[in-house]
Amino acid sequence: MLDQNFNLSCLFCWARIGLFWNIIKIFSMSKNKGLQERTLVLIKPDAIQRGLFGAITSRFEHKGLKLVGVKMIGLDEAILREHYAHIAEKPFFSGVAKFMQSTPVIAMCWEGLDVVSTVRKITGITKAREAESGSIRGDFAMSVSCNVIHASDSIETAEKEVKRFFKEDELFGYDKSEYMHVYGEDERVL
Ligand code: ADP
Prior knowledge:
Blueprint: H1 2-31, E1 38-43, H2 45-49, H3 53-63, E2 66-73, H4 77-83, H5 93-100, E3 105-111, H6 115-123, H7 136-140, E4 149-151, H8 155-165, H9 179-182, H10 185-188
Antiparallel strand pairs: 1-3, 1-4, 2-3
The protein binds adenosine-5'-diphosphate.
The site of adenosine-5'-diphosphate has 9 residues, from loops.
């Protein structure tokens, strides 16, 4: 009787672990957007002034990423406060706000497999003069504040940031013919 109770409670315990595991799996699958993962990039005022839009954009194009949205936009106080909420209390925030409003910015939405982490890697670290050579900040900038682009730093942030800058009808789905040369067959079904 004791044995039977023990077996039953073990079974019950395993069933609960299995259920918990499946919930985690479903949750992480819903986060995995495969080829449809999207991220936000902003071409900052220093890059606009220095005529670097084409050179920066070509880095993403040559990498094989898909451009699904692009527009020029002047940042008002509200969008700036929302976008830079994580640095709002920093002493340099007012400088960043002034800089980001000194010209319009160009907002772009890029799509691809693991695009958020890939674009962050291509972007390079915040302090541009120490950013890795070959990265955009490493190759095009010398400053902490004037570091030519913004790129979303996580999948969760990217989802929010893309929605912040683009309405649904400003984003475009289309077949990118070069995908068969950019990704392997197994990756194209993800
Ligand atoms: P990142 O853009 O690399 O994700 P953060 O989110 O930490 O970096 O900061 C947002 C932006 O604020 C930076 O890209 C940069 O323009 C500016 N910034 C960050 N740290 C400083 C600093 N110490 N002094 C001046 N500007 C800064």
